[in-house]
Amino acid sequence: MAAAAGVSKTTAVFVLNDRPNFSIPEETRTRVQNAAKLLGYRRNGLAAALSHGKTGSIGIVVNIEAGQQDSELGASYLLGVLLSATQAASAAGLRLTTIAYDVTNPPPPDEVTDNRVDGLLLVGIMDEAFTRAVYGTGFPCVTVGSGYALRRVTADNAAGATQAVEHLISLGHRRIAYASPGLTRADRERRQGWLETMERHGLPSDGLEQDWEPLLEWIESQAPDAPTAVFCRNDSYAALLVPAARRKGIRVPEDLSVVGFDSGIIAEAMELTSVRNPLPELTARAVEMLTGLIAGKEVPELVTLPTKLNVRRSTASLGAAS
Amino acid sequence: MAAAAGVSKTTAVFVLNDRPNFSIPEETRTRVQNAAKLLGYRRNGLAAALSHGKTGSIGIVVNIEAGQQDSELGASYLLGVLLSATQAASAAGLRLTTIAYDVTNPPPPDEVTDNRVDGLLLVGIMDEAFTRAVYGTGFPCVTVGSGYALRRVTADNAAGATQAVEHLISLGHRRIAYASPGLTRADRERRQGWLETMERHGLPSDGLEQDWEPLLEWIESQAPDAPTAVFCRNDSYAALLVPAARRKGIRVPEDLSVVGFDSGIIAEAMELTSVRNPLPELTARAVEMLTGLIAGKEVPELVTLPTKLNVRRSTASLGAAS
DNA sequence: CTGAAAGCGCTAACAG
DNA sequence: CTGTTAGCGCTTTCAG
Fold first, then answer.
1. pLDDT confidence bin for B38, thresholds 50/70/90
2. pTM for the model
3. For a Cys-Cys bond, which of A283, B92, B184, B298 suits A85, CB 3.0-4.6 Å?
4. Residue A110 CA, nucleotide D12 C1', distance (Å)
5. Residue B197 CB contacts under 8 Å (≥ 6 apart), including other chains
6. A12 CA vs D5 C1’ separation (Å)
7. Is residue A249 left, alpha or beta, with left meaning phi > 0 and alpha meaning psi from -120 to 50?
8. Nucleotide nearest to B1 (CA to C1')
9. Smallest CA–C1' separation from B9: which nucleotide?
10. Which residue approaches D7 most closely, CA to C1'?
């Protein structure tokens, strides 16, 4: 320790960490600093962390599988979360440690809660057993978006779906499909919003919930009851549907209006009308809850944040083929 | 420690970490395991790390400013890196800790090298002083992409530019612009590739290097010498240019061919022809070098990986307005 | 095969 | 104002 080469311990700590401790003789101070420089001293953050029991970083457990394909399209949500979480953590003076979760080979819950981070954010983990195990350890954690956990912060998926559907209705559409394989909780919540909105407006919904491929074939067939608009479970889904539609000669938005969900980078790039998933706010909130938890405070069980619709160029009035 | 509740220390370590140590009486083993369960024992990874001097995680210093705007478009490269680095690290059994770097308030080099990670990946850091300081500490680090550091792994930017330009030439284009503000090393390398290729094919390049706005005005003016194709510094840039062009009534690819660089999520979403920046390979290689460095091995100073062109739908033969 | 003891590098009382 | 001391919780020789 630098102390050896000059004065001694506590003193060194004071100058090196410059503590709210007045009066350290200039002379001593510089002596320590020189010694430090000379010996090439660098603080060992690990030891410090062990000592005072805080690592200054939080973990984010992400389902990495989503980004494993050749295409990054499916990972767009994850990317948005990673970016905004990094920013949120950084704003809170914390580092973000990414912990990869792979469904086929999930990490042992004990390993992710092994104190190398002060708390955990869970994202997109559809594994109930894992989630329960992690929460069960009592380690501070909050989930972002949908998931099995109680303690979570999420966008208002149903309300978002309603915004999407009402936008379409206001454009004159009546045959509005919901494109989704319906796997996740978010999918189901969005579906619910779509369904209720359709019903509230007296519009039929039967047969209008499908995967995008059959949907496109239906539209291509020009059947009179084919949908004229489709609300996609998320942007990635729309990014699959729109080019496929165009390839079939179905013009967007002239022949078909489409709206996505997330309004992330993909939506921007393809000028897709989309419901904004407020990731920066969501993650900021989650980080806040997490730090609260770490500090031993009470935090809400569920926080739901509002969405808004970003109208871009993939939706148009029914029959307004320009 | 669990040891207290049953047997004693070393033994506990053996069973809990199950070491390559044969012969632990079944009885003792279960006894320890039960005790552990009972006391809710969880290993403290931090203490372990301090003890054997390896944290099992590497850091990635990213310039977070790029993603700070309202739009995520500018952060697409960063997103791609983050995702592939997470995967690369995970494949190597490492965690990835994101360390935000903000130009206006850069973290002290000493803080990023404080041993809370075993090594560092630097991405998109244009701050020479910072880079030097970090490398100067002797802490293991390698930079991904361009940057001031010697030890780095990057795509072959010039060759990639050549691929882009030659594709355009093969489509009959002769007035090929390079859209770039020319700030970064990568920009300059790509420019170099563009320039050399133009020259090699006897094509003029004067005045063809500009920002996208003046470029579009020029094209809109229908001047006879206006470019018919543009090679953009990266996908994000193309994502700005293409919609703006369409808004001016310039059709892509009928009136204007455009090719991007990175071929990431944006290019996929907008079906942009783009030079692939091999991020997964790049980051995997970088992680490999880093682990080598950490293990005290010699590693190459510079690794350059090839790009390839992904032809999508933003480029077409000159005059082939369909 | 199991126990004791030292120490990783730092922090945090508590004395001098 | 500066030095001593006792740990943080684990790993790791080295004995029993």
1. confident
2. 0.93
3. A283
4. 23
5. B161, B162, B165, B166, B169
6. 16
7. left
8. D9
9. C3
10. A51
